[in-house]
Amino acid sequence: MINQFRKLNPVNLIFLLAYAFFMRAVIFYRVPNHLNFDFLEPFARPLINIDFSNAFTPITNIFIATVLVYIQALIFNRIINNHNLLAKPSFLPGLMYIAGTSLFLDFMVLSPALISNFLLIWVIDKFLKLSKSANSITTVFDIGMIIALGTLIYFPFMAMLVMIFLALLLFRSFNWREWIAGLVGFVTVFFFIAVYYYWNNNLDSFYQIWEPLGNKFPAVFKINYNDYLVLIPVAVIIILASLQLRENFFRSFISTRKGFQLLFFMFLVAGASFYLKPNFSIWHFLLCVPPGAVLLAYYFSNAKKRWFYETLFLLFVLSVQYFLFV
């Protein structure tokens, strides 16, 4: 299968769609009785009066989520290929993106994090363009606005503001205007929200939006390790990919090296941002999938022994299906 997706062949569009539905076979087989979907954070709902909480039946919810993941995979695949992060253009980024969004049952339904991934993929594209832009102030301003929009959908998305400064450190020489531009873009969106709350004599509620920023990072985690055994094959592939990347790191283009450094920090920031949501769900970690998928794709794009990487991917798929059904 990996060898097939190493080719930029249009027929892989069909295979990718089939793979997306195959990886979700368990949830189509065991459809939950009820699924909620909150499209926006509570503080944003008065502005956009759309209620999707009970708009879809469970099977419709799962089907739409699968289609959205497929669309995201295609967009993500194109962006990674355009920026030449892998050895050659392929469908591996899209394949790994779908694989990453199939690890847990909670990943397979509509959620704010799933919708936010459209914006996260867009942000990744803009970050990777920073080194190619003569004047990136407008780009950084746009990134700030995109992060603000993502925050309206899912509050922990705000943590991506940190990535603006990390990206500027990696890709640009210091320019204070660029550092300010991202914050201005973010504040612009919330300025209009503040005006709305002010007009409705409810400015106290606007201040309450920022209360999660005062949360302390948890020192103790309650984890049922049996629920995360599915991550073992993922960890093995990530270790192999890291070794492969380390071997080729200084032989790669500077832009490629910086791109992988950016995605590594984005993975960490996306994972750690869960503390901004007091009652977060496992689907929060969908935000880690785009940067993580690039690393997985890098290994399979550069692996040499076909029997090994094909067997490894087959074991990965079978283990995911096993733990989902069991």
From TrEMBL:
Molecular functions per Gene Ontology: monooxygenase activity
The organism's taxonomic lineage, starting at the top: Bacteria, Pseudomonadati, Bacteroidota, Sphingobacteriia, Sphingobacteriales
Transmembrane region(s): 12-32, 52-76, 97-123, 143-171, 178-199, 228-247, 259-276, 282-300, 307-325
Originating species: Pedobacter paludis
InterPro entries reported in the protein's UniProt record: DUF6427
Record's protein name: Beta-carotene 15,15'-monooxygenase
Keywords: Membrane, Monooxygenase, Oxidoreductase, Transmembrane, Transmembrane helix
